[in-house]
Amino acid sequence: MKSITDLRPRSSWCQRIPVLWKTSCLVPVPKKTHPVAPSDYRPIALTSHIMKVMERLVLSHLRPLVSPFQDLLQFAYQPKVGVDDAVIYLLQRAYSSLDRLNTTSSFKEHADRQLHSKGIAIQHFSSAFNTIQARLLRTKLEKMQMDAPLVSWIEDYLTSRPQFVRLRSCVSDPLMSNTGAPQGTVLSPFLFTTYTADFQYHSETCHLQYHSETCHLQKYSDDTVIVGCVENGQEDEYRDLVESCVRWSRENLLQLNLDNKLEWSTNTDAVYKKAMSRLYFLRRLRSFSVCSRMLHMFYQPVMASTIFFAAVCWVDKLRSSFSSRLLQPRCSKERYRKSFLPSAIKLLGRATARFSPVAQPAHLKIISS
C-alpha cells in the first residue's frame, strides 16, 4: 500500500494519469425490468483497482478543499445526509410557509380563493454525468483557488479516456472520450456536485442564507426542485429563479427536463410490491405462533420503513392507487383483509387529516416555466 500512496504525489506532480489506469469497461445496467431501448440502460464504468485506490486518495484530499464552496442544499453524496433529509426539508419548507400565510382561516379557504399557493418546478438533468465539460469544471475549480497540479490532474482524469463496451461475450472496439465523467467510479459523483455547486440561490434580501422566505432551491444529485410561495398572484421571484436555472443549465451545456405534474404511480407500485412481499414473511412468522413482541420488532424495521416512507405524499386525500390497493388487498381470506396493514394505513390517514396541509397535498400546484 505504501508504494501505491507514493504514486499519488508523483501522478499529481506530473499532472497526468497513465492511460492504462483510465481505461474503462462500460457494462450496460438496465434501468427497467424489461429494457427495449439504449436509453433504458445505464453505462457503468469498470476501472482498474489501482485507479479506484487513486481516486479515493484524491477524493480525501479534494473534499475538504471544495466543501466550503459546495451547496448546502445538495443532499446527495454527502456524509450522514440522504434522500430522507431532502424529502423532509422540502415538505417542512412548503408547509411552514403555508402556515405562515394562513394563520386565521382554514387551509381549504385559501385554496379556494387562490390567494396563496405553492409553485414547485421539478427539474432533471438528462445524462448528467455524461455531459460534464472538463474545461468548464477546470474553470470552476480555479475560481475555488484549487492547486494548479490538482486541477490539471482532474482535467486529465476526465479527458482522453479509452473506453469500450462489454455485453456478455461481445466486446466493442475502444473509443477515446473527452466529455463527461465515468459513472460508477469513486470520484465522479463528487465532481458532478462540484460542477453544479456554483448555481445556488441567494435572494437580494437574504444574502447569508441559501433561500428566501418565499423561494428556495434544493438538489439531490442531478434532480433539482425549485419551490416558490405565490401570494396574491405575485410569482415573479419564483419564475425568475426557474428562468435563471434554465439559463445556467444552457450555459453549462446541461440538458434540462421540466416535469409539469407530480406522478407517484411508478414509485407507489414499487413500494406496494415490496410491502406485499415482506408481508408474506410476517404472516409466516405469525403462523409459527411467534409472540407479538417479536412480530412488532420484525415489522418496524422491515415493513414500516418501506410502507410509511414519504406517506404524506400519497395517503388519505390524495387517493392514489397505492393507498387504495393497500386498503383493499387482494386476499382470498377475510382474516388477511382485516389484518393490521390496512388498519395502519387508515390510522395514518386519520392522523394526517388533523394536519390540514397534509390532508390537501393537491394544493401544491406545479407552475411550469
- What best-fitting shape do the alpha-carbon axes yield? globular
Q: Please give the largest β-sheet.
A: 5 strands, mixed
SSE order, as H and E? HHEEHHHEHHEEEHEEHEHHHHHHE
Separation of the first and last Cα atoms: 53 Å
Extended strand count: 10
Short descriptors:
369 residues, alpha+beta, 3 domains, five-stranded mixed sheet, 15 helices, 10 strands, 47% helix, 15% strand, disordered C terminus
Would you mind describing this structure in some detail?
This protein is α+β, with helices and mostly antiparallel strands and 369 residues long. It has three domains: 19-71 and 131-196, no CATH class; 83-100 and 114-125 and 200-259, no CATH class; 266-326. The protein contains 15 helices and ten strands. It has helices spanning 2-14, 19-22, 49-66, 83-101, 107-113, 134-143, 148-158, 188-195, 236-251, 265-287, 292-307, 321-327, 334-337, 340-353, 356-359; strands spanning 24-30, 41-46, 116-125, 161-167, 170-171, 175-177, 215-220, 223-231, 256-259, 364-365. Strands 1, 2, 4, 5 and 6 form a five-stranded mixed beta sheet that branches. A hairpin with a 2-residue loop joins strand 7 and strand 8 (223-231). Helix 1 (2-14) packs across helix 3 (49-66), helix 6 (134-143) packs antiparallel against helix 7 (148-158) and helix 10 (265-287) packs parallel to helix 12 (321-327). Residues 102-115, 204-210, 316-323 and 354-369 have low confidence and may be disordered.
